[in-house]
């Protein structure tokens, strides 16, 4: 290596060293400048975790900041005129007092009111304080308002269950009307729906390992939510009521599900979602019977709930052990639970007089008296006698604001802009009516979201079709009768494809084909009673609603059974039976009539009976009679020391006397009975066997003979 090369190399090393030193010095100077001025721009893409919690105090008409690490109030912003029970949410630079009819923004640095805007719906929203937010989710109206940059109002197309959000700022929502599971990434203005719960299934969302999971309360199972839909079901091992609420996230391998209707808190083992091993049995904790609960909300190690009836905050660990029970000061009936980004759970009393801070590590609960702080603190100033936090760091210095007139909180501005030229919302009032091999579907227009709707896509299992954007219905043909179909309608515009809405399942069937006639059987007695039964006819693809059954002079009945009885019938009557059926949601159809004529017998006179023969066989006597009821139903009996059971008789009839013995000549009596009276006949002689008389004597005969002799002597 020559001298020039060595000199060049040495200069390069020295230059690099001096440059590194210069950069360090420059960095230190920048930090000193930051410490002196307190101002610096935030690097792009850098996110800060929001520490603490804001609450609105009704009495002081102010928003107060509670530092969860020190359990004290350290800032106050005057926001007069807000309604009682208002929520306060925070973003990176601003806080927002959220009322049902107004959102008031204040600057977190100057603690002065900036402006007020109207919300998209007059309801109390669900709040998410996350990266890119905060977000206000108006669940009933199906609207998602992002107060962060860029502001936007994103329509969901229908009502929503409780949302969740992942650490990257993605909001996940569940449409309760059609089961869609949709995501709104950070900064996006359009929902993307990647999965659906089965039709008519209820559920809710939670997070497991910062990934969305849906709880199916109808199927009693958990499913991962992926790009290709719902993952395999993880059975819960318990039966849930439809009103069960799942925690915002899992704690370790346990997910809390509160079921107040059944007075239970369940801790479900969710390890089976990602690991090929069986789940452990659920842990169930008894809740106070009859109480109304808010929650559960989860932190890293504990779950928290509010018993609104008893006015208590309850915290549990992942094993179901009760960690603490603390009364909520003030009006506990409307106490509000909020999960902070600092791994604490905050419980606001309804008037904002107190905030209970739940330690996310051990479940301990501490009370922060906001009323007391309000009486000793002016707007923007720290408490009169602040207690320094633990450690060597001084208490946080509050930014001072210049004395200036605050803008009126009633100052109105336009609502955060609705995203323009985005895919349309879901069609409304989607309904379907079954026909013969077809389904007629109709809907109301979807929200166009800033771009004209160009088409509606109608889909079903096995096919789809597109119709014009001005259409409000169509008929789907070529379907299989007897097969259920779910019809889904999706709107399209120049920005893309919107969220679908589905009608209830319907079953195509041949139109106007009522059921066939049933086969009817009817029997009448002399007492005017008519018994009727019938077979189920060919329903021709319809669903049986009921039967219409009538008899002459007795009106019509609606029955689901296939037999009935009429009384007080006289003469000849006609009994008629018809099946009423229905196809899907169509009108009921009355089928063909099956009928039977029946005559109620009338006796022409008293009955008669004649014994024609008595035979003996296998220890029994067979008494042959001629019975004549004179046109009326009759019953006959035979007697030899005891009477036989009555049996129906007409004409030549055999009456059987079982398990008897006799000797020589005996006496048999036979009787007949109808509605017109009774008659008897007696026979005396020796029963025959094979054509001749039989003399047989046994113990039973001796007893019978002895008794008869006793009677003759008397």
From TrEMBL:
Lineage of the species this protein comes from: Bacteria, Bacillati, Actinomycetota, Actinomycetes, Pseudonocardiales
PROSITE patterns: FN3
Listed PANTHER family: FIBRONECTIN TYPE-III DOMAIN-CONTAINING PROTEIN, TITIN
Pfam families linked to this entry: fn3
Biological process per Gene Ontology, one example term: polysaccharide catabolic process
Biased composition (Low complexity): 399-412
Family annotation (SMART domains): FN3
Fibronectin type-III domain mapped to chain residues: 423-511
Domain of life where this protein originates: Bacteria
Record-level Gene Ontology MF annotations: hydrolase activity, acting on glycosyl bonds
InterPro entries (UniProt xref): FN3_dom, FN3_sf, Ig-like_fold, Quino_amine_DH_bsu, Striated_Muscle_Regulatory
SUPFAM superfamilies: Fibronectin type III, YVTN repeat-like/Quinoprotein amine dehydrogenase
Name assigned to this protein: Fibronectin type-III domain-containing protein
Biased composition range(s): Pro residues: 383-398
Disordered: annotated span: 376-437
UniProt keyword terms in alphabetical order: Carbohydrate metabolism, Glycosidase, Hydrolase, Polysaccharide degradation, Repeat
């Amino acid at each position: 290596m020559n001298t020039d090369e060595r000199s060049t190399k040495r200069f390069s090393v020295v230059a690099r060293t001096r440059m590194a030193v210069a950069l360090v010095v420059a960095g230190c100077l920048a930090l000193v400048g930051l410490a002196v001025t307190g101002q610096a721009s935030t690097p792009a893409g850098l996110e800060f975790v929001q520490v603490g919690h804001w609450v609105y105090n009704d009495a002081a008409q102010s928003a107060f900041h509670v530092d969860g690490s020190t359990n004290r109030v350290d800032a106050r912003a005057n926001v007069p005129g807000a309604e009682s029970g208002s929520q306060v949410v925070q973003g990176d630079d601003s806080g927002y007092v959220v009322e049902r009819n107004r959102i008031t923004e204040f600057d977190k640095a100057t603690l002065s009111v900036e402006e007020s805007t109207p919300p998209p719906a007059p309801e109390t929203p669900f709040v998410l304080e996350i990266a890119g937010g905060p977000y206000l989710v108006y669940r009933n109206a199906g609207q998602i308002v992002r107060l962060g940059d860029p502001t936007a109002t994103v329509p969901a197309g229908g009502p929503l269950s409780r949302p969740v959000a992942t650490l990257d700022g993605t909001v996940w929502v569940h449409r309760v009307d059609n089961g869609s599971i949709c995501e709104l990434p950070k900064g996006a203005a359009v929902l993307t729906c990647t999965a659906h719960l089965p039709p008519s299934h209820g559920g809710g969302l939670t997070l497991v390992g910062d990934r969305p999971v849906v709880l199916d309360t109808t199927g009693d199972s958990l499913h991962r939510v992926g790009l290709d839909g719902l993952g395999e079901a993880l059975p819960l091992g318990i039966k849930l009521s439809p009103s069960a609420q799942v925690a915002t996230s899992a704690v370790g391998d346990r997910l809390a599900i509160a079921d107040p209707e059944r007075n239970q808190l369940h801790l479900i083992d969710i390890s089976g979602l990602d690991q090929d091993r069986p789940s452990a049995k659920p842990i169930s904790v008894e809740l106070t019977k009859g109480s109304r609960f808010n929650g559960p909300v989860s932190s890293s190690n504990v779950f928290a709930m509010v018993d609104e009836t008893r006015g208590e905050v309850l915290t549990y660990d992942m094993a179901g052990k009760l960690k603490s029970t603390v009364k909520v000061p003030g009006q506990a009936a409307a106490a509000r639970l909020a999960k902070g980004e600092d791994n604490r759970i905050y419980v606001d009393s309804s008037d904002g007089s107190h905030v209970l801070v739940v330690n996310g590590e051990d479940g301990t609960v501490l009370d922060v008296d906001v009323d007391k702080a309000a009486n000793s603190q002016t707007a923007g100033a720290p408490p009169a006698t602040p207690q320094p936090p633990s450690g060597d760091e001084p208490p946080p210095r509050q930014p001072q604001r210049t004395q200036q007139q605050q803008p009126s909180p009633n100052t109105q501005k336009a609502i955060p802009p609705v995203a323009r030229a985005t895919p349309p919302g879901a069609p409304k009032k989607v309904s379907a009516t079954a026909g013969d091999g077809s389904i007629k579907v109709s809907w109301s227009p979807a929200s166009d979201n800033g771009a004209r709707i160009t088409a509606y896509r109608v889909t079903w299992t096995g096919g789809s079709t597109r119709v014009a954007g001005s259409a409000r219905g169509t008929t789907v043909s070529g379907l299989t009768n007897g097969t259920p179909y779910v019809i889904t309608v999706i709107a399209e515009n120049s920005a893309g494809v919107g969220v679908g809405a589905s009608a209830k399942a319907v079953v195509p069937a041949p139109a106007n084909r009522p059921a066939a006639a049933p086969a009817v059987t009817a029997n009448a007695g002399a007492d005017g009673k008519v018994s009727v039964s019938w077979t189920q006819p060919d329903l021709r693809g319809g669903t049986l609603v009921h039967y219409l059954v009538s008899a002459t002079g007795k009106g019509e009945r609606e029955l689901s059974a296939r037999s009935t009885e009429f009384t007080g019938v006289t003469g000849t009557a006609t009994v008629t039976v018809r099946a009423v059926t229905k196809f899907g949601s169509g009108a009921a159809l009355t089928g063909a009539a099956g009928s039977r004529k029946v005559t109620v017998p009338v006796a022409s006179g008293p009955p008669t009976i004649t014994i024609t023969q008595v035979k003996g066989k296998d220890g029994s006597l067979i008494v042959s009679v001629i019975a004549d009821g004179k046109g009326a139903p009759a019953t006959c009996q035979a007697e030899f020391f005891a009477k036989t059971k009555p049996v129906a008789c007409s004409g030549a009839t055999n009456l059987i006397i079982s398990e008897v013995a006799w000797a020589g000549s005996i006496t048999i009596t036979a009787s007949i009975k109808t509605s017109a009276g009774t008659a008897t006949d007696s026979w005396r002689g020796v029963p025959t066997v094979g054509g001749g008389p039989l003399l047989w004597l046994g113990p039973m005969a001796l007893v019978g003979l002895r008794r008869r002799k006793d009677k003759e002597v008397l």
